[in-house]
Design goal:
Helix content of chain A: 55-70%
Radius of gyration of chain A: 42 Å
Largest sheet of chain B: 4 strands, antiparallel
Oligomer: heterodimer
Keywords (chain A): Membrane, mRNA transport, Nuclear pore complex, Nucleus, Protein transport, Translocation, Transport
Structural class of chain B: mainly beta
Strand order of the largest sheet of chain B: 2-3-4-5
Subunit structure (chain A): Component of the nuclear pore complex (NPC).
Shape of chain B: globular
Strand content of chain B: over 45%
InterPro entries (chain A): Nucleoporin_Nup85
Strand content of chain A: under 5%
Shape of chain A: rod-shaped
Number of strands of chain B: 25
Number of helices of chain B: 1
Largest interface: A-B, 101 and 88 residues
Helix content of chain B: under 10%
Protein name (chain A): Nuclear pore complex protein Nup85
Radius of gyration of chain B: 20 Å
Order of helices and strands of chain B: EEEEEEEEEEEEEEEHEEEEEEEEEE
Function (chain A): Functions as a component of the nuclear pore complex (NPC).
Number of strands of chain A: 6
Structural class of chain A: mainly alpha
Distance between the termini of chain A: 86 Å
Chain lengths: 722, 323
């Protein structure tokens, strides 16, 4: 399953589009394979995740060296989410992917714990819900921190007093989008001062709003470049434009800082500019004391912080009164510098909420939107009328080169989680969608239902599960990230484990470390069947590639009785062919490995007895002790009595013992034992006549030499019998 | 860019097949040689497998080692496995050759069930044979389990069709308790043999039975060019894609042991396919995206959305210039 592409149809269609008009044909992506056309044949194969192997074979019968080429295409890449890819490189994205796993896993386990608790108490309590959004907020903060750029500038640096825009860290759209979702969907504490949060957000991410149209940020950074060469700033219209722009979006610290660049502050003045300076300073004071309805103000931010609504209304009316008073002041007549007078008056008009001036001062509709909350509708609470206002601002300032952020905000303001989800998919990629769904559903019942409803037309998948599967496939497409895919797959109740099984079975088994890693994952997710299969696959691989010991080890781990029995059988065959001593060591090791714990494997039991017999025989022939000789014949009798000893081994066993039987002066076997062996020999002679008799490459006189040895043993045994 | 060249195939390459994890590739050539590539541009092994052109290479399931089956233009089929002794470099060994007899072997596919390996071969006279591997360690002992004709109606048994190609797809389920089943369709002059049918092994009578035919009344006899059975990671129904000259049909097949009508089939989409014949169909590991290749030199990817509507998701053009 691929992530949505920009052009093709979407997996999750907008529910607002009931007709589902045929999607436009997807863009055609050329494959660079280096084979001369014409192409006679194309073969494809999926490997892990979204990797597609494409083999193109040349149709020409020429004598070219290369007649075909195999290209691996990663369909997850260059498939939407272009905005994210431009900003964040592969390694950085991987850092985010790995970093978000613990937070995601913790949230899932908390969800399960809450669900278990609710099931125990047979109720869905309100407090449970209340607890939940705090967990999500914690999760959101953790992820938000992760999205901060690690290459941010160190805090201890000498600040240039003429620097207008303080550089903190490189803002990314991903972080901007994440914060936007957090503001609107998770943080309940913020609802009473939502507009201020939006203003703060804009201060951080204004530069990302558009690449083609202007923004306040652009204006200021352009002016910053110009500033070095400016002698008298107040004569430059861009100075005043920058000031009004910064003020319109509430960047009070920037405005006050810039006002201090004004020439009237300079001490070595030739002309009399006290009044002018007084007016500049008066505006600066008004700007820095603007009342703001918010719980706190971070250091460096200006304004008068009001935590309660009545305080704010009171402070606001007082402040507005001061602004109006200054606007009507008589001092303006004494201000000789025309541009200063006009510029300052413009700032006052902005503070008084003059729509015309605000519209002129802002560049992007979102800036105009924010300025409305600051100066025209300062008492707005929560969502109230936001969508309508946004539409009005868009009409006033239509924008063409929109980024994903504005689309996202549109979706949020229109209270349409489907649009939000679609924008996330299209612009920010599968990581964002998978992780942001938690935010969407934190406190929004509609989104919760939309995300979790099972779709019968799609095999019973829910949207949430689908997106997690898509993301897991993206992770599976890379050898460095596939290991974290199981976390997401295991959070999918319907089909996640099915995909996890396939993913684990697709991992290569040539490398033992890799196998151990895969098996550890199997253990973690209790996939015993899968681990058994993997062990069997590893076993056969090593067995076939000359590492018999490793092969047997894996077969044993997998409790693969069929194959172990078969291996034991192969060993018999080898033993049956030749019992030469140089061979003994080799198969003795294998028998050792096969172990004795597999009781049902009859062949193995035989092999173990046979090994004991051979060891003992060697010792006896080396002439160490008479005890060894006695022990050997005991093993021989046991073997011959045991029904699990294959008939074709009877003769080799007896033949092996001939030297032993012959070399001892006193008989090793008593009459009964010898008779048993002679009977077996007789049985063997009869069997030899049957067509299915298995010959065992012993010399033709083997049978008669065994018979002779047994006969002489019998004779001696009879004589010794008491 | 996201494309990475992984191998260069030698002259005369006619077909290729990947192993289960997609990291090994076997390519058959018109001179009867086979080359195996291991994530290196040049082959790790190359040997003469047949006297005539190789038309199809298929890997066996990894549970039986690294092994391939080669279908030769002369109608025979050979099985090869990679083996090594101690520290020596691995080499490929011939395990078994299947003769076509009076007809040609057209196609082969392997299925795993109840820890035994099954092989289905399709012949140019419309025969289908099912073999079972007798030895779990060696690939040389096979037993013929069944001989079938891809028809549901015994009346149509008369006469032998002339088949150009056959498409076989095993049910990809690995479960121990699952029923064995596969789908097979022919490209022949006989409409009865053509239509794709699902065969299932009936334990009670130890025989293969045609369960169901995938085809609407008017399309039943269409020549089948490719069949692919999607992996099922938890859907209540199976998805099978069948390519004919009319396009690619996507079928939902429900196996409900409880209900009276045990099987239900529904053609949920007929995708336009390719401009020309469809060569190959391949499902991704989740069974949600279908890749198709065709004589127009395109690779197309198909997906359903949440409403179950199938659409073309992406197109890869392989007719590109020589760069």
């Amino acid at each position: 399953m691929l992530a949505d592409s920009g052009g093709g149809g979407a997996i999750v269609p907008f529910s607002g589009d009931p007709n589902h008009a045929a999607p436009p044909p997807p863009p055609v992506r050329p494959i660079r394979h280096g084979v001369a056309p014409p192409i006679s044949r194309v073969f494809v194969s999926w490997s892990s995740g979204n990797l597609l192997q494409v083999a193109c074979l040349s149709g020409g019968r020429g004598a070219e060296e290369v007649a075909g080429s195999v290209v691996e295409v990663n369909l997850a890449v260059a498939n939407g989410s272009a905005e994210v890819e431009q900003e964040i490189d592969e390694a950085e994205m991987r850092r985010i992917e790995y970093g978000s796993v613990p937070a995601f896993a913790l949230l899932q386990s908390r969800r399960n714990a809450l669900a278990d608790a609710a099931a125990m108490q047979h109720m869905h309590s309100v407090s449970e819900r209340a607890e939940w959004w705090q967990y999500v907020l914690q999760y959101s903060k953790t992820i938000g921190k992760l999205l901060g750029s690690p290459d941010s500038l160190p805090g201890l640096m000498i600040e240039d007093p003429r620097a207008i825009l303080k550089v903190r860290e490189r803002p990314t759209s991903l972080k901007a989008a994440w914060e936007l979702l957090e503001i609107f969907y998770v943080d309940k504490n913020l609802h009473s001062w939502l507009p201020e949060r939006l203003v703060d957000w804009l201060a951080d991410y204004d530069s990302l709003l558009t690449k083609t149209d202007g923004t306040v940020y652009c204006k200021l950074s352009d002016f910053q470049k110009k500033l070095i060469n400016l002698q008298v700033v107040e004569n430059d219209p861009d100075y005043w434009n920058g000031l009004s722009a910064a003020l319109s979006v509430g960047w009070l610290d920037v405005v006050v800082n810039m006002l201090r660049f004004h020439g009237s502050y300079q001490l070595d003045q030739m002309d009399n500019r006290e009044t002018e300076n007084g007016l500049v300073e008066a505006v600066a004071v008004l700007v820095s004391t603007m009342p703001r309805m918010r719980p706190d103000l971070p250091t460096g931010k200006l304004g008068q912080c009001c935590t309660s609504r009545p305080d704010f209304i009171k402070a606001w009316e007082k402040w507005r009164g001061q602004v109006s008073k200054l606007e009507c002041s008589a001092f303006w007549i004494q201000c000789g510098h025309q541009k200063t007078r006009d510029g300052l008056k413009n700032l006052l008009h902005i503070m008084m909420g003059n729509i015309k001036d605000l519209t002129a001062a802002t560049s992007h509709w979102l800036e105009l939107f924010a300025s409305h909350f600051l100066y025209i509708r300062p008492f707005t609470v929560g969502f109230e009328g936001m969508h309508h206002l946004a539409q009005k601002c868009i009409q006033l300032k239509p924008s063409f080169g929109n980024s994903g952020l504005t689309g996202l905000l549109n979706g949020i303001l229109s209270e349409n989680p489907e649009v939000v989800l679609a924008e996330c998919t299209k612009k920010f990629g599968p990581w964002m969608v998978t992780h942001s769904m938690e935010l969407l559903a934190a406190d929004n019942e509609y989104a919760d239902i939309m995300l979790h409803e099972e779709r019968p037309n799609f095999g019973g998948l829910s949207i949430e599960e689908l997106h997690r599967l898509v993301y897991a496939q993206v992770l599976s497409s890379h050898s460095l990230t596939w290991q974290i895919a199981p976390t997401y797959l295991s959070s999918c109740l319907n089909q996640g484990l099915g995909l996890l099984e396939i993913l684990l079975l697709k991992q290569p088994i040539q490398d033992n470390r890799q196998v151990l890693k895969t098996l550890e994952l199997c253990r973690l997710y209790e996939l015993e069947n899968v681990s058994t299969n993997i062990m069997k696959i590893a076993g056969i691989y090593h067995w076939k590639h000359g590492r018999k010991g490793t092969g047997v080890y894996w077969f044993q781990q997998a409790h693969d009785k069929v194959r172990l029995d078969r291996i034991a059988q192969q060993l018999f065959e080898r033993i049956g062919k030749s019992v030469a001593d140089d061979n003994f060591k080799q198969w003795e090791g294998l028998v050792e490995l096969l172990g004795s714990d597999i009781g049902s494997a009859g062949g193995l039991e035989f092999l173990h007895r046979y090994r004991d017999f051979k060891r003992s025989l060697q010792q006896a022939l080396e002439g160490r002790t008479g005890e060894a000789a006695r022990q050997t014949v005991e093993f021989l009798i046991q073997l011959m009595r045991n029904p699990s000893t294959p008939q074709r081994f009877w003769l080799p066993l007896l033949h092996d013992s001939v030297r032993l039987l012959n070399c001892k002066p006193c008989p090793l076997l008593n009459v009964a034992e010898t008779t048993l062996l002679l009977n077996k020999l007789q049985e063997l002679s009869m069997a030899k006549l049957r067509p299915d008799f298995c010959t065992n490459h012993l010399p033709s006189h083997a049978l008669s030499s065994v018979r002779l040895a047994l006969a002489s043993n019998l004779a001696r045994a009879i004589l010794e019998e008491p | 860019m996201a494309d990475r060249q992984v191998a260069q195939l030698g002259p005369g390459t006619a077909c290729c097949g990947w192993n289960h994890c997609g990291r090994r590739l076997a390519a058959g050539a018109i001179d009867g040689t086979v080359s195996v590539y291991d994530s290196q541009p040049s082959p790790s092994s190359r040997w003469q497998a047949h006297e005539h052109a190789i038309v199809n290479v298929v890997w066996l399931p990894p549970d039986y080692g690294d092994a391939i089956a080669c279908v030769c233009a002369d109608g025979t089929l050979s099985l090869w496995e990679e083996v090594a002794e101690d520290d020596q470099l691995p080499s490929w060994r011939k395990c078994k050759v299947f003769e076509g007899g009076n007809s040609h072997i057209l196609s082969v596919q392997f299925g795993l069930l109840l820890s035994s390996l099954k092989m289905v071969t399709a012949y140019s006279d419309g025969q289908v044979k099912v073999y079972e591997l007798l030895d779990s360690l060696e690939l040389d002992k096979w037993q013929l389990q069944a001989e079938l004709q891809n028809i549901t109606d015994p009346v149509s048994r008369n006469g032998k069709p002339a088949c150009i190609s056959a498409s076989i797809a095993w049910s990809p389920r690995r479960g121990e308790s699952q029923q064995a089943s596969f789908a097979v369709g022919f490209n022949s002059d006989s409409p009865h043999f053509n239509s794709c049918k699902i065969w299932e092994f009936e334990e009670a009578h130890q025989r293969w039975l045609p369960l169901i035919e995938l085809g609407s009344v008017e399309d039943k006899g269409d020549r089948v060019h490719a069949v692919a059975w999607a992996p099922n990671i938890g859907r209540p129904y199976e998805i099978i894609a069948v390519a004919t000259s009319k396009g690619i049909a996507v079928w939902h097949v429900g196996f409900n042991p409880e209900s009276e009508c045990r099987l239900s089939t529904e053609s949920v989409a007929v995708l336009p396919g390719h401009n020309g014949e469809v060569w190959q169909l391949e499902w991704d590991m989740g069974g949600m995206t279908l890749a198709s290749t065709g004589s127009d030199g395109m690779v197309k990817l198909w997906q359903a959305n949440l409403n179950g509507v199938w659409h073309e998701q992406a197109v890869l053009d392989c007719n590109g210039s020589h760069d």
